[in-house]
Prior knowledge:
The protein has one domain. It is 45% helix and 10% strand. The model has no long low-confidence stretch (mean pLDDT 76). The chain has a two-stranded parallel ribbon. The N and C termini lie far apart (44 Å). It is mainly alpha-helical.
Amino acid sequence: xDRQVWSGAMNRGTVNLAExxxxxxxxxxxxxxxxxxxxxxxxxxALRVHVVTDSQxxxxxxxxxxxxxxxxAGLWAAVAALRREGxxxxxxxxxxxxxxxxxxxxxxxxxxxELIESYNWPEGAGGAGKTHYDHNPDD
Length: 139
């Protein structure tokens, strides 16, 4: 029974993409940790994970058969690969306002969005023909 806060940032993409990334990263970590445990002599076991989300999209699509999603297909393929590794995922939708932990996560995401905005450069900044993608803070 682990509860951990995962953080990261993304400043381009859809809300659904951001929701999916929030689950793929820790699920991948869980599989890696389990592989290390098995390698150290522990027996293989099914990993049962309950994902509690305020995203109706994730909860609904997570319960659909693998390979049927077109939107965010790459991330759903990663979820399917995790299932093949033995992860049994049960998706639960809870409205944001009905769970204190969802409200906490929503506040964390707002802080992350505000922080990443400070790193966005306007197009053309840094010289003629350059964009914020050409910027290297170590230069």
